[in-house]
Amino acid sequence: MLIGVESEITIRVADELLMFLPATRRDTANRVPYDGTSTLGHIVESLGVPLPEAGPMSIGGEPAGPSTRPDDGDEVRVAAVPRPQPVPLEPGQDAPRFLLDVHLGTLARRMRLLGLDTAYHNDMDDPALVAQANAERRVLLTQDRGLLRRRALWFGAYVRGSRPDDQLRDLLDRFAPVLRPWTRCTACNGELVPVDKQEVEHDLEAGTRRSYDAYGRCADCGQVYWRGAHGDHLEEIVREATELVEAVRGNGRTEPRCRRDEERGWSTSISSWWEPRSSRTDGCSARSGPSRRTWRAAGNCRVGRSIRASRMRTPWYASATRNWRSRCGSAAGSAATGG
Ligand SMILES: [Zn+2]
Q1: Which of 153, 181, 218, 325 fits a disulfide with 185 by CB distance 3.0 to 4.6 angstroms?
Q2: In this structure, what CATH number is given to the domain that contains residue 15?
Q3: Rounded distance from Cα 81 to ligand 1 centre (Å)
Q4: Distance from residue 289's CA to the centre of ligand 1 (Å)
Q5: Are residues 191 and 307 in the same domain?
Q6: pLDDT tens for residues 209-223?
Q7: Per the structure, how many domains does the chain have?
Q8: CB within 8 A of 337, min separation 6: which ones?
């Protein structure tokens, strides 16, 4: 490098990463000044791309890593993260665990609906998020680029899309995780366990008691679940998600992470209970349970009951109930307890 002559390198980033660059530099080929000492990782981040979003890099066609130091005039290529992206799993774990940033509450509930282990709090600051993600080996999902630049973070990912539907699609396309729909509490992420109808009968309104036989209860917060109103909307989410994950895997981009579950054929008919969030108010008159108290405090009980009462009168509700029963056959209860 000649004194007084500034070094430069050329960086070509994949189209998928252009969104991270400032508008004025949103070009696949960027010539940037080079100080002769910075690493590739530092240069890529300076350009605006968080390292967790950068895929394989190369210099002059040769593979390079974030710690590589380029030479003057080098041409660097930065690919997007390959999809589906593998996540290191702990022993006994067959799907990644996730932690969501504070503004992704709706996405968190949808992920729990699909059975993904999803931690979420609406009041955590960045250091606390990084600490929990690292301690519990959870993939931190965020739309905060600054958070993804934190060196201490073990595994993070940027969630694309402003609508929860798009965010969920992006997440499923990126990780193609094993799904277990209808097995988690959307409120607290606890696992649902089968429970006898007699045990929860006193918590139910008459209409619910008459219509459903299979129930589950959240092992953590005690919320009771059954298949209820809005089931069609939730089932649509589950169906789309399952098809998307199957399509991603079917493209040969990954092997199923848990062969046992593939053979077992998880489906909505195996875990047959579910009470969607909007009808959780059914349990408001019950005697105990933290989430019921929360809902009562939030003033949702009366509204929820009236919505639910109107649905109880509609043919849709009756036919939804019939369909569910016919899918599960006479083993509606035992299918649930077997799941
Ligand atoms: Zn719960």
Answers
A1: 218
A2: 3.10.20.30
A3: 34
A4: 10
A5: yes
A6: 888 888 889 999 999
A7: 3
A8: 194, 214
